[in-house]
Design goal:
Elements lengths: L2 E3 L9 E3 L2 H9 L7 E5 L5 E9 L4 E9 L9 E6 L5 H12 L3 E6 L9 H22 L6 E2 L3 E2 H7 L8 E5 L6 E2 H8 L7 E5 L7 H9 L3 E4 L10 H9 L6
Parallel strand pairs: 1-3, 6-7, 6-12, 7-8, 7-9, 10-12, 10-13, 11-13
Antiparallel strand pairs: 2-5, 3-4, 4-5
Helix pairs in contact: 2-3, 2-7
Protein backbone atom coordinates (compact mmCIF):
# COMPACT_ATOMS: atom_id res chain seq x y z
CA UNK A 1 0.00 0.00 0.00
CA UNK A 2 1.41 3.46 -0.86
CA UNK A 3 2.71 5.41 2.16
CA UNK A 4 2.87 9.20 2.38
CA UNK A 5 4.35 11.62 4.90
CA UNK A 6 1.63 14.08 5.88
CA UNK A 7 2.95 16.67 8.40
CA UNK A 8 -0.45 17.65 9.78
CA UNK A 9 -2.89 16.31 12.39
CA UNK A 10 -4.70 13.17 11.22
CA UNK A 11 -8.13 13.19 12.93
CA UNK A 12 -9.88 9.84 12.68
CA UNK A 13 -13.05 9.80 10.62
CA UNK A 14 -12.37 13.24 9.12
CA UNK A 15 -12.30 14.24 5.48
CA UNK A 16 -8.86 15.78 5.10
CA UNK A 17 -7.39 17.95 2.35
CA UNK A 18 -3.82 16.75 2.01
CA UNK A 19 -1.01 19.34 2.20
CA UNK A 20 0.18 20.42 -1.23
CA UNK A 21 3.41 18.40 -1.24
CA UNK A 22 1.64 15.22 -0.10
CA UNK A 23 -1.16 15.76 -2.62
CA UNK A 24 1.37 16.03 -5.45
CA UNK A 25 2.89 12.69 -4.48
CA UNK A 26 -0.54 11.04 -4.50
CA UNK A 27 -1.33 12.57 -7.89
CA UNK A 28 1.95 11.35 -9.37
CA UNK A 29 0.80 7.79 -8.65
CA UNK A 30 -2.52 8.56 -10.41
CA UNK A 31 -4.51 7.19 -7.50
CA UNK A 32 -8.28 7.16 -7.88
CA UNK A 33 -11.23 7.65 -5.49
CA UNK A 34 -11.80 4.53 -3.42
CA UNK A 35 -8.12 3.52 -3.36
CA UNK A 36 -6.41 2.96 -0.02
CA UNK A 37 -3.23 4.59 1.25
CA UNK A 38 -1.26 4.97 4.47
CA UNK A 39 -0.46 8.34 6.06
CA UNK A 40 1.99 9.18 8.84
CA UNK A 41 2.82 12.56 10.35
CA UNK A 42 6.01 11.76 12.25
CA UNK A 43 4.36 11.78 15.68
CA UNK A 44 4.19 8.00 15.94
CA UNK A 45 2.11 5.30 14.31
CA UNK A 46 0.37 5.47 10.97
CA UNK A 47 -3.17 5.87 9.65
CA UNK A 48 -5.07 4.01 6.98
CA UNK A 49 -7.04 6.28 4.66
CA UNK A 50 -9.09 6.23 1.46
CA UNK A 51 -9.05 8.71 -1.42
CA UNK A 52 -12.38 10.56 -1.67
CA UNK A 53 -11.60 13.05 -4.42
CA UNK A 54 -8.75 13.75 -6.82
CA UNK A 55 -8.78 17.40 -7.94
CA UNK A 56 -6.42 19.19 -10.29
CA UNK A 57 -4.33 20.51 -7.43
CA UNK A 58 -5.92 18.96 -4.35
CA UNK A 59 -6.61 15.53 -2.90
CA UNK A 60 -9.32 14.77 -0.33
CA UNK A 61 -9.00 11.64 1.81
CA UNK A 62 -10.88 10.05 4.68
CA UNK A 63 -8.72 9.10 7.66
CA UNK A 64 -10.09 5.79 8.88
CA UNK A 65 -7.93 4.17 11.57
CA UNK A 66 -4.73 4.72 13.53
CA UNK A 67 -2.25 1.88 13.93
CA UNK A 68 0.32 2.14 16.71
CA UNK A 69 3.13 0.74 14.55
CA UNK A 70 6.74 1.67 15.33
CA UNK A 71 9.77 0.54 13.36
CA UNK A 72 12.47 2.45 15.23
CA UNK A 73 15.73 1.04 16.53
CA UNK A 74 16.00 0.38 20.26
CA UNK A 75 19.23 2.39 20.41
CA UNK A 76 19.06 6.05 19.27
CA UNK A 77 22.05 6.82 17.02
CA UNK A 78 22.86 10.44 16.20
CA UNK A 79 25.32 11.20 13.40
CA UNK A 80 27.48 14.33 13.28
CA UNK A 81 29.54 14.47 10.11
CA UNK A 82 31.65 16.59 7.85
CA UNK A 83 29.46 16.88 4.77
CA UNK A 84 30.64 14.85 1.78
CA UNK A 85 30.66 16.64 -1.57
CA UNK A 86 28.31 16.54 -4.56
CA UNK A 87 25.27 14.24 -4.28
CA UNK A 88 26.88 11.99 -1.68
CA UNK A 89 25.19 13.83 1.19
CA UNK A 90 21.77 13.14 -0.36
CA UNK A 91 22.65 9.46 -0.59
CA UNK A 92 23.97 9.42 2.97
CA UNK A 93 20.80 11.01 4.38
CA UNK A 94 18.62 8.54 2.49
CA UNK A 95 20.53 5.44 3.57
CA UNK A 96 21.00 6.62 7.16
CA UNK A 97 17.25 7.12 7.40
CA UNK A 98 16.64 3.60 6.10
CA UNK A 99 19.07 2.26 8.73
CA UNK A 100 17.22 4.06 11.52
CA UNK A 101 19.29 7.14 12.34
CA UNK A 102 17.71 9.41 14.99
CA UNK A 103 19.23 12.69 13.76
CA UNK A 104 21.93 14.06 11.46
CA UNK A 105 24.10 17.09 12.17
CA UNK A 106 25.86 18.40 9.01
CA UNK A 107 29.17 20.10 9.75
CA UNK A 108 31.66 22.29 7.88
CA UNK A 109 35.23 21.37 8.77
CA UNK A 110 38.71 22.43 7.70
CA UNK A 111 38.83 19.78 4.99
CA UNK A 112 35.21 20.09 3.83
CA UNK A 113 34.75 20.46 0.07
CA UNK A 114 31.09 21.42 0.43
CA UNK A 115 30.80 24.92 1.95
CA UNK A 116 27.31 26.15 2.80
CA UNK A 117 26.09 29.37 4.39
CA UNK A 118 22.98 31.53 4.53
CA UNK A 119 20.12 30.89 2.13
CA UNK A 120 22.01 28.18 0.24
CA UNK A 121 22.53 26.25 3.48
CA UNK A 122 18.86 26.65 4.45
CA UNK A 123 17.74 25.30 1.07
CA UNK A 124 20.08 22.32 1.34
CA UNK A 125 18.85 21.47 4.84
CA UNK A 126 15.21 21.71 3.70
CA UNK A 127 16.09 19.40 0.78
CA UNK A 128 17.80 16.88 3.07
CA UNK A 129 14.79 16.83 5.38
CA UNK A 130 12.63 16.08 2.32
CA UNK A 131 15.01 13.27 1.38
CA UNK A 132 14.65 11.84 4.91
CA UNK A 133 10.84 12.02 4.71
CA UNK A 134 10.83 10.26 1.33
CA UNK A 135 13.11 7.55 2.71
CA UNK A 136 10.67 7.02 5.60
CA UNK A 137 7.84 6.60 3.09
CA UNK A 138 9.84 3.90 1.34
CA UNK A 139 11.26 1.99 4.31
CA UNK A 140 8.22 2.05 6.61
CA UNK A 141 9.46 4.35 9.37
CA UNK A 142 6.82 6.53 11.00
CA UNK A 143 9.22 9.01 12.63
CA UNK A 144 11.30 11.27 10.38
CA UNK A 145 14.86 11.92 11.64
CA UNK A 146 15.80 15.58 11.91
CA UNK A 147 18.55 17.00 9.71
CA UNK A 148 19.78 20.03 11.64
CA UNK A 149 21.13 23.35 10.40
CA UNK A 150 24.68 23.35 9.02
CA UNK A 151 27.21 24.39 11.67
CA UNK A 152 30.93 25.08 11.77
CA UNK A 153 32.54 22.15 13.56
CA UNK A 154 34.20 24.29 16.24
CA UNK A 155 30.93 26.10 16.99
CA UNK A 156 29.14 22.77 17.18
CA UNK A 157 31.72 21.30 19.57
CA UNK A 158 31.29 24.28 21.87
CA UNK A 159 27.50 23.89 21.77
CA UNK A 160 27.72 20.16 22.41
CA UNK A 161 29.75 20.56 25.62
CA UNK A 162 28.63 19.10 27.97
CA UNK A 163 26.96 16.15 26.24
CA UNK A 164 23.45 16.93 24.95
CA UNK A 165 22.12 13.82 26.68
CA UNK A 166 23.43 10.72 28.45
CA UNK A 167 25.10 8.38 26.04
CA UNK A 168 28.31 7.34 24.33
CA UNK A 169 30.33 9.79 22.23
CA UNK A 170 32.45 8.08 19.57
CA UNK A 171 34.70 9.90 17.09
CA UNK A 172 36.12 8.15 14.03
CA UNK A 173 39.89 8.60 14.13
CA UNK A 174 43.06 7.27 12.48
CA UNK A 175 45.26 8.06 15.48
CA UNK A 176 47.19 5.37 17.29
CA UNK A 177 45.49 3.72 20.23
CA UNK A 178 41.92 4.01 19.00
CA UNK A 179 39.43 1.41 20.20
CA UNK A 180 37.24 -0.71 17.91
CA UNK A 181 33.73 0.70 17.99
CA UNK A 182 32.26 -2.69 18.90
CA UNK A 183 34.64 -3.04 21.86
CA UNK A 184 33.87 0.44 23.15
CA UNK A 185 30.16 -0.23 22.84
CA UNK A 186 30.44 -3.46 24.83
CA UNK A 187 32.32 -1.83 27.70
CA UNK A 188 30.79 1.66 27.91
CA UNK A 189 27.28 1.26 26.45
CA UNK A 190 26.25 -2.38 26.91
CA UNK A 191 22.52 -1.61 27.16
CA UNK A 192 20.76 -1.83 23.80
CA UNK A 193 18.89 1.40 24.54
CA UNK A 194 21.97 3.55 25.31
CA UNK A 195 22.11 6.51 22.88
CA UNK A 196 25.25 6.80 20.75
CA UNK A 197 26.62 9.96 19.12
CA UNK A 198 28.98 9.20 16.23
CA UNK A 199 31.23 11.93 14.82
CA UNK A 200 33.19 11.58 11.56
CA UNK A 201 34.97 13.88 9.16
CA UNK A 202 34.65 14.66 5.44
CA UNK A 203 36.98 13.64 2.62
CA UNK A 204 40.44 14.09 4.10
CA UNK A 205 39.25 13.49 7.65
CA UNK A 206 39.27 15.84 10.60
CA UNK A 207 42.08 18.34 11.14
CA UNK A 208 44.35 17.78 14.15
CA UNK A 209 42.91 20.84 15.90
CA UNK A 210 39.37 19.54 15.38
CA UNK A 211 40.24 16.12 16.77
CA UNK A 212 41.89 17.73 19.79
CA UNK A 213 38.84 19.90 20.42
CA UNK A 214 36.64 16.81 20.26
CA UNK A 215 38.90 14.91 22.65
CA UNK A 216 38.69 17.83 25.07
CA UNK A 217 34.89 17.60 24.79
CA UNK A 218 34.93 13.92 25.88
CA UNK A 219 34.64 12.29 22.46
CA UNK A 220 36.32 8.87 22.42
CA UNK A 221 38.41 8.01 19.31
CA UNK A 222 37.32 4.78 17.61
CA UNK A 223 38.11 2.74 14.52
CA UNK A 224 35.85 0.74 12.21
CA UNK A 225 38.61 -1.62 11.12
CA UNK A 226 41.78 -1.76 9.00
CA UNK A 227 40.27 -0.41 5.77
CA UNK A 228 39.85 3.28 4.92
CA UNK A 229 36.20 4.00 4.19
CA UNK A 230 34.82 6.89 2.17
CA UNK A 231 33.35 9.85 4.02
CA UNK A 232 29.81 8.81 3.10
CA UNK A 233 30.40 5.12 3.88
CA UNK A 234 31.92 5.35 7.36
CA UNK A 235 28.87 6.84 9.15
CA UNK A 236 26.61 4.21 7.56
CA UNK A 237 28.95 1.39 8.58
CA UNK A 238 28.92 2.72 12.14
CA UNK A 239 25.16 3.09 12.10
CA UNK A 240 24.68 -0.48 10.89
CA UNK A 241 27.04 -1.76 13.59
CA UNK A 242 25.16 0.18 16.28
CA UNK A 243 21.66 -0.86 15.21
CA UNK A 244 19.63 -2.70 17.82
CA UNK A 245 16.15 -3.82 16.82
CA UNK A 246 13.20 -4.21 19.11
CA UNK A 247 10.71 -7.10 18.96
CA UNK A 248 8.80 -7.41 15.68
Amino acid sequence: MPRFYCPTPLPLGAALDLPAATARHVQVLRMQPGEALTLFNGEGGECSATVLRMGRSDVLVEVQAHHAVERENLRPVHLALGMPANDRMDWLVEKATELGVSSIQPLMTTHSVLRLKGERADKKVAHWNSVAAAACEQCGRNRVPAVYEVLDVQDWLRRATPAPAPGLRAMLSLREGTLPLAGLLATQAPAETTPVYFFSGPEGGLAATEEQAALSASWVPVTLGPRTLRAETAPLAALAALTAFGPR
